[in-house]
Amino acid sequence: MAIASNDLAVRPATEADADRLIAVLAEAFHDGPVADWLIPDPEQRRAVYYRYFRDAFLHGLKHGEVYTTSDQSAVTIWHPHLEPTPTKPHQRLETLETIAGAHAPKIVLLEEMFDTFHPDEPHHYLAYVAVDPQRQSRGIGTAMLNHYHRRLDQIGLPAYLEATDMRSRQLYLRLGYTAGPPMVLPTQGPTVWRMWRGAPNATTRSPFPPTRPRRRSL
């Protein structure tokens, strides 16, 4: 069912949206400090990103919640994390090697760091929000996030994400997130900001949870 959000029709995405929304994800994330660090060559990056975001989109449909707009100009992928989620590192490594080939090690490293510092407290995780580059700076992404945030406030749950540049960090601060301890990617990588939008209470929102790095083993 489509829901109007600030004059923007937001609806659940389906497999029929895959081709268009995977393109939106790949193009929206093609440029930026993390993208440059992961895959320096832009053409190789574009090919890998289309495969990577196809996997992310289909995984989101199966295990999370994916939303788009009536014109398919934007997409969000959320994952409820109501309890610590077990991972299958060997299986994920094989998947990423198929998707990214020689670029897989840095993507594995990025995902491992994100998982290691992921909060254990119940929350919903914003894995991706992407707007068609031709439609950016029109408030579409903000409207989609506000649509989901209202739902989280109604059920009393926080939201968590990683901001990969200063512009997105500032946007999330305006939307009620607070910044936790950042992560600096190795081998001269960029800074990633961990962001938390606490659950509402009588006077404020729940604070950023304590950082407890998870022990991982491959």
UniProtKB/TrEMBL annotation:
Region feature Disordered, mapped onto this chain: 199-218
Entry-linked Gene3D superfamilies: 3.40.630.30
One Gene Ontology MF term: acyltransferase activity, transferring groups other than amino-acyl groups
Pfam families referenced in this protein's UniProt entry, alphabetically: Acetyltransf_1
Domain of life: Bacteria
Transmembrane segments: none
PANTHER family, per the entry: GNAT FAMILY ACETYLTRANSFERASE, N-ACETYLTRANSFERASE DOMAIN-CONTAINING PROTEIN
UniProt protein name: N-acetyltransferase
Organism: Micromonospora sonchi
Lineage: Bacteria, Bacillati, Actinomycetota, Actinomycetes, Micromonosporales
